[in-house]
Amino acid sequence: MPDAGAARTDPASPLTERQEARRRRILQACTQLAVRGGFDAVQMREVAESSQVALGTLYRYFPSKIHLLVATMQDQLEHLHATLGKKPPAGETPGERVAETLMRAFRALQREPHLADAMVRALTFADRSVSPEVDQVSRLTTTIILDAMELNDPTPEQLAAVRVIEHTWHSTLITWLSGRASIAQVRVDIETVCRLMDLRAAPSPRDAN
């Protein structure tokens, strides 16, 4: 008989209030462990104990540590999205607004470097079994960037530009976390790719005529 306390596997079925509260405790426990010790500190047994759930139940919500940390990144991005909704980025051009948005996200990660490293490592290690969770992170990142661009119905070319920005963002995070890039270099890379997006969007002299 299925565990009545386990998360539902049908994506069309929302979690009950009790299940959502349990999931929230699990994510909070994972975050706290990662903040203190990074990727290696997140052990499923310790997460279960800290969140006061049975180990078997934890695995029904998150089949692995990688699933859990990718879900934690999604949770962090959802918090960022809500914050940006209350205080949208400033900037005259879409590129300027996207650059500010990503730098705000970067500063939040900078405050908790162990957590940032754990989440990015999980994304890097994720295999096909984690594809749905990784796709959710990617979709949310895309939504955050499109909101900054103030685009509700992007063209395929604009979506391609967003993908390039996402790739640059992920790459700069990795180089910063590995100590191969300074915060100033991260800013330059982010602002450069966003400025290129503005240049691509600007009408050419031929179009103006």
What is the third-level CATH name, the topology of one domain? Tetracycline Repressor, domain 2
Name the CATH class of one domain: Mainly Alpha
CATH architecture of one domain: Orthogonal Bundle
Low-confidence stretches: 1-12, 203-209
- Number of continuous helical runs: 10
Rg, Å, rounded: 19 Å
CATH superfamily of one domain: Tetracycline Repressor, domain 2
The total count of strands amounts to 0
Give the mean pLDDT: 89
* Strand residues, percent: under 5%
Task: Note the main attributes of this structure.
disordered N terminus, 10 helices, mainly alpha, globular, 209 residues
Quick rundown:
The chain is mostly helical and 209 residues long. The protein contains ten helices and no strands.
